[in-house]
Design goal:
Helix content is 48%, strand content 7%. Strands 1-3-2 form a 3-stranded antiparallel beta sheet. It has a two-stranded antiparallel ribbon with strand order 4-5. The chain contains 8 helices and 5 strands.
């Protein structure tokens, strides 16, 4: 036996994107999204387009449909920031509805989570458009946040500099 476990489960990150979860479950795109829409696949939705999957939860689900009790609540936070020490905590809710998922109005909590996800992606080196897309918002929403939320704008500038 080798020093490094190379089982398929260990080749995937603990938190996965839709594409990674699809490959992990070895499902075709149509079957995967059909099951996802039906609520059959355990996931965490941060916005209409930003969905994440916890590897352990998917393993338990595919093995027999049972989801571990801890996973029923929520997977670990997706932020790369430490709690209380982040530029993302500066991205407080600005109280306006300018940050939108196309076709829907975001709630305050969704907007705050989208801001955190965007800032985390930018800090991780993602291009701005990719970070916005991954956060489930448009660049227009990001521009509105910059204009209306000074703390968000400062946090983004601090990360980018």
């Amino acid at each position: 036996m080798s020093d490094h476990d190379t089982t398929p489960e260990n080749t995937y990150p603990e938190i996965m994107t839709s594409e990674q979860a699809m490959a992990f479950l070895q499902m075709g795109r149509t079957a995967f999204y059909r099951a996802l829409r039906a609520g059959e696949i355990p996931c965490r939705r941060f916005s209409q387009r930003m969905i994440r999957f916890h590897r352990e939860t998917l393993s338990a689900w595919i093995a027999g449909g049972a989801i571990p009790a801890a996973a029923e609540q929520a997977p670990p936070p997706l932020s790369i920031f430490e709690e209380g020490q982040t530029p993302a905590t500066l991205a407080s809710v600005s109280g306006n509805d300018n940050g939108r998922v196309p076709g829907t109005t975001m709630t305050s909590d969704q907007r705050e989570e989208a801001k955190r996800a965007y800032l985390a992606d930018v800090e991780g080196g993602a291009p701005l458009k990719v970070a916005a897309r991954d956060a489930g918002v448009t660049m227009g929403a990001v521009r509105n946040w910059r204009d209306s939320d000074k703390a968000f704008d400062e946090a983004e500038q601090a990360i980018r500099n």
